[in-house]
Amino acid sequence: QVRLVESGGGSVQAGGSLRLSCVTSGDTDSRRAYHMGWFRQAAGTEREGVAAISSAGLGTLVADSVKGRFTISRDFFKRTLYLDMNILKPEDTAMYFCAADFDYFGLGDKYNLWGQGTQVTVSA
After folding, report:
1. Geometric angle at alpha carbon 82, from 98 and 79, rounded to 5°
2. 86: which strand partners?
């Protein structure tokens, strides 16, 4: 069974930075790589796609709300997905989730596998 485990969340002041990580473990198909994405959900809101990266790592998508501040990347050998978040704002406060899918690549809520999330809190 494939698992996605996020880490790196925490509390930071506005203007600060954090790096989120998402490790893929379990019985994955070594012949294929997942498209992967980062999502976030603030209290009382719908889940929002933040960034996505293609299975080969050659294509990325970033939501307008975080463009120029957040960067998605992946390390295939470490089976780890990253989200570097800079110039954080209070409105970035949310639970952040990583997601994976063999077929879907995008910022929509269509990924097949999801992690449990890591909380990011940005204070003014």
Report:
1. 80
2. none
